[in-house]
Amino acid sequence: MTEVIVVGAGPTGLMLAGELRLHGVGVVVLDREPAPTPNVRALGLHVRSIEIMDQRGLLERFLQRGKQFRLGGFFAGLGTKWPDGLDTAHSYVLGIPQTVVERLLAEHAAGAGAEIRRGAEVTGLSQDDYGVTAELADGSRVQGQFLAGCDGGRSTVRKLLGIGFPGEPSRHETLLGQMEASAPADQIAAVVAEVRKTQLRFGLGPAGDGTYRVVVPADGVAEDRAVAPTLDDFRQQLRAFAGTDFGVHSPRWLSRFGDATRLAERYRAGRVFLAGDAAHIHPPTGGQGLNLGLQDAFNLGWKLAAAVAGWAPQELLDSYESERHPVAVDVLDNTRAQMELMSAGPGPQSVRRLLSDLMDIDEVNRRLISKITAIGVRYDFGDGPDLVGRRLRDVRLKHSGRLFELQHAGRGLLLDQTGGLSAGGWSDRVDHVADVSDEVDHPAVLLRPDGHVAWAGADQRDLDAQLSRWFGP
Predict the structure, then answer these.
(1) pLDDT per residue as tens, the chain (473 positions)
(2) Nearby residues of 387 by Cβ (< 8 Å), 6 or more positions away
(3) Which of 142, 248, 282, 348 sits between 20 and 30 A of 329, alpha carbons compared?
């Protein structure tokens, strides 16, 4: 019997596995596909995900394989520049294909001791007061104390639990693929630039190895989205929007995606949890999907580890849904808004022109990019200073280096600028750092393992109450 079963070896599941292994939790990852997908559906990491990698000491390996961008246009293609003054030490987007993200996370999880089983399809689930049993297609079973469904928008785990997935079906679909093109590169770039003046769901961009990543609106909504489109479908739609098919040929892979927006009715059923696309789907505008899943896993991992270790307060596992569900609601809302702004109708285009003018105001630009990059997230921890509930960005300490370097072990952290406080009986779960920073305005802050501020102040009794709330007795 393992301790946690993770279903789905995509970015969310692999991130969760790595977080659990950080705390010594036994993990097995089950994925029905025999090998990782070659499809590059996502192209980058936003600020909060970059911070997460830095908090765990993983960022350097991602930076080596990605490219940093400080470009405008991440909110519905609006805004001419990357905003100044973002509250982060990592003010950029990291361009890196999803396939590379998955490979790096798999290497990290496996290197930390997670077992990754591919070709292992879950077909049944049962649970009781002591654990969860996953039944596999080959007739075998895997038992664990908890299970996390990170198996995508068509989640088998969610369906087996009978959790509703209400929302809106796709109104528009888009073809996405990787293929070669015989047209000259300068001609492709010129035509794409012209088409994108009126059609923002269109693009051909270099994807490496002489191939292009092709994005073009589909001809209606497919009756069965599981059936991949054909190369002729791409050629037809390219000619319809650009007047040429650019001589596309030799596809590596072809797929489609829609703008359906759905949110799971609940994120937990007993000992089973949902994360990533299994809990929420939305249009890919703003590139938030992969990042939202990574951040779900970052929130859930330390809480499951605390439950396995036996010190989790009763409400800690419930806080996963109460914190992450509102974040997903906000992402669904902003992606809906972006899709409207990208519509070609006169009404949406009028609103688009108005908002485009507003994006020239620095504060508006920062506010919207803070949404896209998830650095504006604040969990509701009750009354307290505005910093409480927010993640604390990386700051420099006078003697101890960078804050994020102190969070690699995934423990809680008490940053004590007074030198007079104590983590007391929680020192096995919370590191006490007596140091100062010009960038922290409070006498002391208590950080959860995910970097969110649980408390700020100077009173030991108040601190003890919050240590008990988040780190158990």
Answers:
(1) 899 999 999 999 999 999 999 999 999 999 999 998 877 777 789 999 999 999 999 999 999 999 999 988 888 888 778 998 999 999 999 999 899 999 999 999 999 999 999 999 999 999 999 999 999 999 999 999 999 999 999 999 999 999 999 999 988 888 989 899 999 999 999 999 999 888 878 889 887 788 998 999 988 777 666 678 999 999 999 999 999 999 999 998 898 888 899 999 999 999 999 999 999 999 888 889 999 999 999 999 999 999 999 999 989 999 999 999 999 999 999 999 988 888 878 898 899 899 889 998 999 999 999 999 999 999 999 988 999 999 999 999 999 999 999 999 999 999 999 999 999 999 999 999 999 999 999 999 999 999 999 999 999 999 999 999 999 99
(2) 441, 442, 445, 453, 456
(3) 348
At position 130, the amino acid (one-letter code) is Y
Do 373 and 294 meet the contact criterion of CB atoms below 8 Å apart?
no
What are the phi and psi torsion angles at 7 (to 5°)?
A: -100, 115
Catalogue all structural domains in the chain, each as residue range(s) with its CATH number: 4-166+262-373 (3.50.50.60), 173-258 (3.30.70.2450), 396-471 (3.40.30.120)
Main-chain phi, psi angles of 470, to 5 degrees: -100, -25
167 — alpha (psi -120 to 50), left (phi > 0) or beta?
Answer: left
Which residues, other chains included, contact 292 with Cβ-Cβ below 8 Å and sequence gap of 6+?
276, 280, 327, 328, 331, 374
Residue 133 CA to residue 151 CA, distance in Å, equals 16
- From residue 303, alpha-carbon distances to 20, 300, 390 in Å are 9, 5, 17
Which 8-state DSSP code applies to residue 230? P
Q: Where are the alpha helices (DSSP H) in 42-195?
A: 47-55, 59-63, 98-111, 156-161, 185-195
CB 433, CB 397: distance < 8 Å: yes
Q: 384-408: b or e for each residue (b if 16 or more CB lie within 10 Å)?
A: eeebbbbbbbbeebeeeeebbebbe
**Amino acid symbol at 69:** F
